[in-house]
Amino acid sequence: MSNHIKKIFVFSFFCFIAVIGFLTLDNETKKSEVEGRRLMTFPKLDYQKFSDSRYMQNIGDAFSDQLQYRTSMIEKYFDITTNVLKIGYQGTTVIGKEDYLFSEPEVITGEEEYDKEIRKIAKLINKEAKKVTDSGSKFIYIHYPRKDILMERYLPSFYISGKERYEKSLKILKENLSEDVIFIDALELFEETGSEEYFYKTDHHVNIEGQEIIYKTVTNLMKEQFPKMDVKLLDSYKIKKTDIVGSFDRNIGNAIESGKENLAIKPKGWKVKYKRNSKAKIWGKGDTYAKCFMGGDYAFTEVTTKNKNNPDVLICGSSFTNSLESLMVPSARKMISLDFRYNKQKRTMADFVEEYQPDYTIFIPCQSDKSFSYETTKLHLGL
């Protein structure tokens, strides 16, 4: 290559970098849909702070997050590594058979200490369940498995299954729960059907078919006390199939084609009243789990129906509760939903039970990263 051509190349390269830089400085994108996280935006220009290392670090972080064409670069990178190079492990996301996506394996170190933590979890739940039952409410505890525990046949060959450890942990938990707790084992219910298809392909949440199984189990319990209550199964809804943008898929730049799955449900001709600090619809729409069920995660939601034959229900948990809540709406006279990841009031779940006096309190402390966690359980109880 001649010196003349080299100079043209270097000049063109620096011009390209300069253009990208100038375009970046004008960007103010607040969230990356590809990564599912908030982005750093440029701080207000202040020449006096240029000697402040933290201020300059914020500028550097903002430049990285706001880089022009950044989303396209991320998507192209993951497209090459996933679909061309066939790399099956992208950070904390694992690509399984038929492109099913999973979280990285849960590694348990210190078996005895882990068993002690599970007994500690049971003791904590028993303590709060007694408060709930003393308030006149029945306490239902639903435990969901991680996706990899149920869908073993889709795991890649290099994935270390944690099912045996999970089942041992579940046995310890059940043995240590008190009579105040009505325990529902979602894994057992799913396996009884002979199917594994109860999670979204590219997402960590239970799909609507899986939640219908849980919903039927819960309402069958409630019908013993409220025989005339409404039960609306999936044939009572309009169901929309769409290509779901799953949480795991967003972690790898939307590199996997999920295919159409049942994502949105909408009632056939009936309405309810609800209040919270948002206008997000209970039966939503879109291409993500969060948008479609309960309009996403909210600290507090109160839903009221006109059917006096239905019980009052309080549901406390995380995003795992959202699609179950959407199904529970027509079966409740009043439904209170709590998510203590966002609820900053200095009141516990038991405090809300004492105030609203529900007939049933449903507790779901499930997260996608760990099957059993004392800190997660404590958080979801509002403690």
Q: Using only CA atoms, what is the Rg? A: 24 Å
Helical stretch count?
13
Contiguous low-pLDDT stretches (5 residues minimum) are none
Task: Round the mean pLDDT to the nearest integer and report it.
Answer: 85
Summarize the biggest pleated sheet: 7 strands, mixed
What letter string, H or E per element, gives the SSE order? Answer: HEEHHEEEHEHHEHHEHEEHEEHEHEH
Secondary structural class:
alpha/beta
Strand ordering within the main sheet: 7-6-14-12-13-11-10
The coarse overall form would be globular
Residue fraction in strands: 15-25%
End-to-end separation in angstroms reads: 69 Å
Give the % helix. Answer: 25-40%
Number of strand segments: 14
- By oligomeric state, this entry counts as single chain
